[in-house]
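Weekly sync notes, structure subgroup
Attendees: PM, AL, DS (notes)

Item 1: joint prediction request from the bench team. They want all two components modeled as one assembly rather than separately. Inputs as received:
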Amino acid sequence: MAALAAAGKKVKTFVIDGKDVSGTEDQTIIEVCRENNIEIPTLCYLDGLTEIGACRLCLVEVRGSNKLLPACVTKVQDNMEVVTSSDKLKNYRVKILELLFSERNHICSVCVSNGICELQNLAQRLGMTHVHYPYLFPKLEVDASHERFVLDNNRCILCTRCVRVCDEIEGAHTWDIMGRGIESMVITDLNKPWGESESCTSCGKCVAVCPTGALVEKYKNAVDKSFSYKKDKLKFLPYLTTMREVKNEQS
Amino acid sequence: MSKVKAATIWLDGCSGCHMSFLDMDERIIDLLEKVDLVYSPLVDNKEFPEMVDVTLVEGAVSSKEDLEKIKKVRERTKILVSLGDCAVTANVPSMRNPFGVDAIMKHAYVDTAVTKDIIPNEVIPELLEYSRPVHNFVKVDLFLQGCPPPADAIYFLLTELLEGRMPDLTKVSRLGK
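Output from the run, pasted for the record:
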């Protein structure tokens, strides 16, 4: 901390869940939470990628604000009082999960990511008993044209981790989002089949960061003993942070 | 003291949840000291009784027959439990939903037929447009996820109900597994 303050960054002191904490002025609430082992559920946030505040699962209560604020894009301030778990927050978080489950065809029991899926695990952890909203059962495409990987739109939650990792870390920008609202889909190149993409380097970073079974390796599943991008995600994550630090130093 | 009346029914599911129920092994014997299993695929009663204390439902609601059954069961049951992922989420039966009933029937009975290529209009019940979870049609009191729910979870559910408590099943549920 002293080193950071010496580097010209102001130190902010504040309270999270009744605990006195401190962070530098450029840190977000979620970064300070993670440093202090305070758990906040997330789906779009991933350490090492740009924060976009899309999934809204990290919403927290901040005293003095009548709105809930996303912890991943809210910078810390002196004397702020943050609450990361309450009945109100749990209620909203479960509703967000239910909306995600109702929007596309998430069938955990037959999914290759069954057991290592962040959406499924969050539903379990936050105590989602069932989905109150009517399921939409859309008919969505599966793109298996790539030699090694598959995109299954049925399982995509539009977190855009794949878009960001491909652009920010690999530098290829193969992935993007097409369409608006509920019609939005992740696409490769200008909506070409993945296997015909000229920009894709087949590095597999998108597969590693995908929280669900939307991007998977062919011939691999959750119980596979050999290396898999998805299962060994935790080994892969420090790399993202390192890469971003290198990038920041260069710019 | 009279025994608690329990029932189980099997809609659009694979019977795996009932198998998991049987996986309680010898604990079933103790349970049956306090519970009368009045209707179930596991017992030989053809008509769902008038007054049942608790009914466990396996499977999604996929056909007109399922719908009639579940409505009748709801009317005659005090505590209705969605047992397993098909009842709770529609799970595997819902995989046909994006394609539509006509396409599914044609694929099953014409395109892949080895003997007769006729779509049956009797014997098998008419499918609903979508296979949906039980709570989309009737009020459900408790949800136990799992594919199938573990035997221990089903035992916990039943013993808690026998003690007169509405259990919190979120800790024993396991969506998709």
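Discussion: The first helix of chain A runs from residue 2 to 6.
Action: AL to compare against the crosslinking data before next sync.
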